[in-house]
């Protein structure tokens, strides 16, 4: 009976969250009460004995102990803060119920992942100083009385990072994952290869990093300026570093999706192994300008063998379901001029060069499927006919996603006008150089990933939404953060919170508190105190 009352009251209160709850993304059902629970001098946390549950409890204990200086103990029952397995099937694999009463704090979930998201909400109910990396000063460690039942709207809630254009150090990648997890996102899409750099060690092909990871110079200023800095640039991740990141993400219930571009965006690979190109005698160089190159892979059998060998090492490293193969922006100029490509089109009874790209994608899909994984690619993989097992990431607006869903293919929505975080977010005259376009916080927040034209059955194929971060103009981690937050915070709410429960005015009120958390975490978000290089001023100056 109490859950029936909770549900009825929760529907009424979820639309008008009271001032003391400033959780992002916004929980879907909230019931508040007067009063607060004070953490005791000694804090006990209990959780089921299984390793994953204890791991979540320990992460919470470590944060509370670090920020408050209180003694924190772990046990399997009877904690002031308790994590417990719920029998409520409506919570699913990622939902949780959080109850704060005079007796203490209870987080119930069907899985450790759901409990982890309950912990993220609990931390946001505490004073913002709970995120401090060291013991905070004079703080009253209280938690408002509240009951929350929260289940995400979408199963796929992602954020991408391009490290091919500008390499990002491991420490920053981990921080990026921390922020993904804080915002209850569960997918980190790692764009590892492109024309301007190959960033992942492949042991069978050492030249990919010996040669392909380094370019002779980089564009400076805007693309239209046509100027270069004349400085060699590069970097890559060893397989041990990749494993380290994957484990770090898994500890925070974030899946890492690798992207290995093919058959276009291939210049770094061709500079490493020219025989994979359309003209093996050509001298290729790792790309130094931004944009799209005509140089693409030639789909000979030797090239397919290369792709399969590379993807085998990638699949052995990355345990997640999805392997991203790019598939976008593949010019057909060289294929039109190639006798081999034209003969292959005739041999395989393909319609044209778009059919040849589809032939490539379908073969790669078959290979990835044979390894027990799912292929995902940008919406150009629709051209020439979509591979049967493919998941489409729709970036050129929603058209590709709609088409794929209508063909009963799974879709992740990433339309540029809403979720491309390399766009300007304010007047370009006041901002450092960016690729162009304009996507402000309000526009990102307004996005609805489920197009109205889809039927109910077709809409089930919309897995979720992802923010994309292309780094042509983002040279440093500080500038990545400046471009990503708070727009990625808005996107996290698009992915988690039911449309009927969203309000931009309410989001802005909660963001006013949430940015204080990011201050403590040292995040260089847009709107933070910055210097002339658009880098965060830390410690914060009054």
From TrEMBL:
Q: What is the protein named?
A: beta-N-acetylhexosaminidase
Q: What class of enzyme is it?
A: hydrolase
**GO annotation, biological process:** carbohydrate metabolic process; glycosaminoglycan metabolic process
The chain positions of domain Beta-hexosaminidase bacterial type N-terminal read: 22-150
Pfam families, alphabetized: Glyco_hydro_20 (PF00728), Glyco_hydro_20b (PF02838)
Q: Which GO terms describe its molecular function?
A: beta-N-acetylhexosaminidase activity
List the EC numbers from the record.
3.2.1.52
> Where, by residue number, is the active site?
329 (proton donor)
Q: Name one GO cellular component term.
A: membrane
Q: Where is the signal peptide?
A: 1-19
